[in-house]
Design brief:
With 420 residues, the protein is mainly α. The chain has a domain of 125 residues. It is 78% helix and 0% strand. It is built from 15 helices and no strands.
Length: 420
């Protein structure tokens, strides 16, 4: 007799099947496509090349700043029927003469003032030590000040001076290279613009033209803001030092205006020479000059800079302050110097390329702007059909200028005769 069949085990429940599948080892595979690998290699090569050619990149950036500064003056002369070559030569000549005059007025007077201060330094140090001796807390410092000697080894001093002189020569060489590069870029403007348009698809020519025009506007606005702040601190320094009877007030004011271009250390370079020159009059005069200059520097950094640069570059005051801090933290002095035009360029590209930020809703003005872009694109395609690249680039620039004029001078249909 056959044994009864054994009962089959119960089927596993859904929960048991899930637990069993979780116990099994999972294998995760990451596959990188050849296109992604090529992109990563190209990005790494570009970063390495940028680091190696960083001085050359800086020369190019300075040259572009010079071009953006000189171009409005050259365009103004061209509008008055002056040939472009003569206009470029005239503008560069006038700027060179102004730079030579500034150096001639400032440097000799500052050197004479510095030599005079060095000669009177022992007497001033002794007088300051006598004042400190009168107070119990500052008496030890007064004794240290009397015994202070400058006994640095001559060899180290000579080596340091040689190193600084070579550094100054290197900076001057890079500066001259940037100026000549800017001159060549302005002379070959049409050829360079045609080459740039040749490598960009024709469907993006109008957008490229607007970006280039906006970049020139940003650079011009930044330079104008620098000129305004430099002139203001120069005028304030000249009036203050003249009222206090300090010698060489004009030279010190010019130096303060030039030093104000540099972020962070510009304030110390503006205040330091003025206070040292005021020490030649009296300690009270030096204290007054110090307090007044510090007050003005605080007013400039908190009020003038956000308003002037924010209005010129169309940046909010908070963005101006944040850009200066971020640029100084990332790249030091140079980063702070270029922070504002870089921030304005990023904002311009976001607006010009119509980049939709997270959480941003499309506005009516954005829709109208896109409609105007489409009309400009249609006009460009119609006028450049069968035209060479260089002439097409000039047409794109002309359309962009006309469009900006229409945006800045809108026609009011309610005014009789406005549309005529």
């Amino acid at each position: 007799m056959a044994p009864p069949p054994s009962p089959s085990p119960p089927a596993p429940t859904l929960l048991e099947r899930r637990r069993s599948s979780d116990r099994k080892a999972r294998t995760v595979r990451f596959e990188v496509s050849p296109a992604t690998m090529i992109t990563l290699v190209l990005v790494a090569a570009a970063a390495w090349l940028l680091i190696r050619l960083w001085p050359v990149v800086l020369v190019l950036v300075v040259a572009l700043l010079v071009v953006g500064t000189m171009s409005p003056a050259v365009s103004w002369l061209e509008a008055r029927r002056v040939r472009r070559g003569f206009g470029i030569a005239f503008v560069f000549t006038m700027v060179s003469i102004a730079a030579i005059l500034i150096v001639t007025i400032t440097i000799p007077s500052l050197l004479a003032q510095a030599a005079s201060l060095l000669e009177r330094e022992p007497a001033f140090r002794a007088s300051l030590a006598d004042h400190l001796t009168q107070f119990h807390l500052s008496a030890p410092f007064a004794e240290w000040l009397r015994n202070l000697r400058y006994d640095g080894p001559g060899n180290n001093l000579g080596a340091t001076a040689f190193a600084y002189s070579m550094r100054v020569f290197e900076v001057a060489a890079y500066g001259m290279s940037a100026i000549f590069l800017a001159l060549y870029m302005m002379i070959d403007r049409d050829r360079l613009r045609g080459g740039l348009f040749a490598i960009v698809p024709r469907t993006h020519h109008m957008r490229l033209s607007r970006v280039m025009m906006n970049l020139e506007t940003i650079v011009g606005a930044y330079i104008r803001g620098q000129l305004v702040t430099c002139l203001l601190i120069g005028a304030f320094t000249f009036i203050l030092l003249t009222a206090c009877g300090v010698e060489n007030a004009m030279a010190l004011a010019v130096f303060a205006g030039i030093a104000d271009v540099l972020p962070y250390i510009g304030a110390f370079l503006s205040v330091g020479p003025a206070v040292l020159a005021a020490l030649g009059q009296s300690t009270t005069t030096a204290v007054i000059v110090l307090l007044m200059m510090l007050t003005y520097e605080e007013f400039e950094s908190r009020v003038l800079v956000p308003r002037i640069y924010g209005r010129a570059l169309r940046l909010p005051s908070s963005v101006v302050l944040f850009s200066l801090m971020a640029g100084g933290t990332l790249m030091g002095l140079l980063g702070a110097l270029l922070a504002l035009p870089v921030a304005a360029t990023i904002m311009m590209l976001i607006e010009e390329l119509r980049v939709e930020l997270p959480g941003e809703q499309e506005q009516v003005a954005t829709t109208a702007q896109r409609a105007r872009d489409d009309l400009a694109e249609e006009e460009y395609e119609r006028r450049t059909e069968g035209v060479a690249v260089g002439e097409a680039a000039a047409i794109a620039a002309e359309i962009s200028v006309d469009r900006r004029y229409e945006e800045n001078h809108p026609v009011n249909p309610d005014v009789p005769g406005a549309a005529e």
